[in-house]
Specification:
BirA Bifunctional Protein, domain 2, three-stranded antiparallel β-sheet, elongated, binds 3,4-dihydroxyphenylalanine
């Protein structure tokens, strides 16, 4: 007993002299006076000592316990008086603040513009199946995008329902359309952001994982003018009020008619001359869109004679790069704080 008490007293003395702030004192209090403190173990040994020793060690332990709590109190007080002498002219330590990742912020910004236009955010799933990613969207079985060079198939047991095919990492956010349509009735106006995956070699403008935002609206009398109006509002709110739109005919299996959309270059304002952003074209491609193909509506249980819809899909990285003058997509994923903290 004697050596153990001595050891405890010495250890406390050492610990006490090493403590220099309130947090350290609190840790000391927990260690020496808390529920699991060594002194409690020593107290619990007292009843098993001889009658004479019981009296001595009970008393000694109580003295030590009082000593410890007094020393702790005094140390706390001495710190308090030190803190009163704080030099208010001394520059404060810089507080490092974290912030949202630029891609999350841009994706949310895109969605919030569409929310203002009456759309509701619905997130799809990153692990998809062939039916939602391709078949429901009228993408034929022999379409090259189904190839393993263009889609990551997952080496896991397949869905039980045969028509759903294999599991995969979604290669676009368009399957969100099929998911929402299959469980909800029009009128619908949905915006769906998220990660997508394609086995692309990584370079300044490609990554095997990137982000997209999908949007669509379905109702009885939806037409192409609604699509144009919504997208025009979007680009003016997201990029700049003086930005204009241009639709170019295109093909997507899930829309008919389909179009690709360009915005007028907001750096050279369409003047083209030696513009580093649009490379003298005056226009920047930002998204694909069209009227939802009747087969897609039917595949998802919506009567295509009664309802029409428009849909569009855009990347998040590209608008972010255009808006913030970022010239290499890899910067988004390298977790370089110097890059990220600028936004
Ligand atoms: N899913 C297309 C892609 O990843 C983008 C897209 C184009 C989505 C046209 C649409 C659309 O909804 O109508 O390239």
């Amino acid at each position: 007993m004697e050596t153990e008490v001595k050891k405890l007293e010495e250890e406390f003395g050492k610990d006490l002299s090493g403590v220099c702030d309130a947090l350290g004192i609190e840790a000391l209090r927990v260690k020496y006076l808390g529920r699991k403190a060594e002194i409690n173990r020593l107290f619990s040994m007292v009843p098993s000592l001889s009658k004479e020793a019981k009296g001595i060690w009970g008393k000694n332990l109580n003295i030590l316990k009082n000593k410890i709590s007094l020393a702790i109190e005094e140390k706390l007080k001495s710190l308090g008086t030190k803190e009163e002498k704080i030099d208010l002219t001394y520059p404060a330590a810089r507080l490092e603040k974290g912030s949202r990742h630029i891609l999350s912020a841009v994706s949310e910004e895109i969605c919030s513009v569409f929310e203002k236009l009456g759309f509701t955010v619905v997130e799809g799933t990153e692990i998809e199946d062939e039916w939602h990613n391709f078949s429901a969207l009228n993408i034929p079985l022999d379409h090259p995008s189904r190839d393993a060079f263009d889609t990551f198939y997952l080496d896991i047991p397949q869905p039980q329902e045969k028509h759903r095919g294999k599991f995969l990492l979604r290669s676009h956010t368009s399957p969100s359309q099929a998911r929402v349509m299959s469980v909800s009735k029009p009128p619908l106006a949905v915006i769906s952001p998220g990660r997508v995956y394609r086995p692309d070699a990584v370079d300044a403008s490609h990554s095997f994982m990137f982000h997209q935002v999908e949007g669509f609206a379905i109702d009885k009398n939806i037409n192409f003018a609604h699509l144009k109006g919504v997208l025009l509002n979007f680009v003016k709110l997201f990029f700049s009020p003086d930005v204009n739109l241009r639709f170019r005919p295109h093909f997507f299996p899930f829309t008919e008619p389909s179009a690709e959309v360009d915005i007028s270059c907001f750096i050279c304002k369409g003047k083209k001359d030696k513009c580093s952003l649009c490379k003298g074209k005056g226009w920047l491609e930002i998204l694909g869109c069209g009227m939802i193909h009747p087969k897609v509506l039917e595949n998802c249980g919506i009567d295509s004679k009664k309802y029409k819809g428009f849909a569009f899909g855009m990347g998040v990285e590209r608008p972010a790069m255009l808006k913030y003058g970022i010239n290499d997509i890899r910067l988004f994923y390298e977790n370089d704080v110097k890059f990220l903290e600028q936004f």
